[in-house]
Amino acid sequence: NIRDFIATENCLEGKTILVTGAGSGIGRVAALTYARYGATVLLLGRTSSKLESVYDEIESAGGKQPAVLPMDLEKATYAEMQQLEGLINKEVGQLDGILHNASLLGELTPLEMYDVDIFAKVMHVNCNATFMLTQALLPLLKDAAHGSIVFTSSTVGTHPRAFWGAYAISKQAVEGMSDIFTQETRNTTTLRFNCINPGGTRTNMRAHAFPGENPMTLKTPEDIMAGYVCLMSDASIDVRGQVVALQPKD
Ligand code: NDP
């Protein structure tokens, strides 16, 4: 069971894993956790100061030296993502996994009134940029013995829900992207593509989405890390095209 995976020490040893939105929330804790299990972590996000603090936390915990990759997924061009692929190849020489974690919540409002500029921005960060970054990094990922691409969905990505607008639509698109990548690569590579749905988790995004909720009733990012580690470790090499819900009753 992926949710209850018991990680062995150093189960990510020798792997290089890129985490988007690594400066805060679930992405920050995933980056720290991957480093704790032996991975070299590439910290991508839009706020350098937050990425640098995560870098310092990893270093002081004795993890492998990470790398800070400042990139605003709203503005980054495909050419910049290809340059990033070249840079990772030159400086690190390998890429075994991507955790596509960064995303925007946008507005919670009926589609009839949804601001079209916010709609485009949310779709771009959550869906288009996720696709662009995956495609740009594929050459390196395909060289990995068992590469793992993990997209982040949400319960509203599996079951559309009124008022969740572009966020829900972008997460449905991400689930479709994972499925199509899986079908197209199943017979030709060892690469695997899956989605993770963390379920309600104590972060800034959750607090914005549910302002009346007591955050202390929610799991913390640390509580749900078993699934995040499992999908990056070789324990999951046969898991393909799944949407893994970490809190199925959410
Ligand atoms: P947070 O809002 O706390 O963190 C989101 C991260 O994404 C931040 O590090 C943020 O950077 C980064 N980010 C946002 N926009 C961009 C951008 N344009 N370029 C680069 N990075 C960007 O969210 P969570 O930690 O709660 O969510 C993590 C993932 O889990 C998301 O995909 C979310 O949809 C999903 N999820 C979360 C749930 C929850 O209950 N928390 C439930 C279901 C799904 P910065 O800090 O600089 O703003």
From TrEMBL:
<keyword id="KW-0560">Oxidoreductase</keyword>
<dbReference type="InterPro" id="IPR036291">
    <property type="entry name" value="NAD(P)-bd_dom_sf"/>
</dbReference>
<comment type="similarity">
    <text>Belongs to the short-chain dehydrogenases/reductases (SDR) family.</text>
</comment>
<dbReference type="InterPro" id="IPR002347">
    <property type="entry name" value="SDR_fam"/>
</dbReference>
<dbReference type="GO" id="GO:0016491">
    <property type="term" value="F:oxidoreductase activity"/>
</dbReference>
<dbReference type="Pfam" id="PF00106">
    <property type="entry name" value="adh_short"/>
</dbReference>
<protein>
    <submittedName>
        <fullName>YciK family oxidoreductase</fullName>
    </submittedName>
</protein>
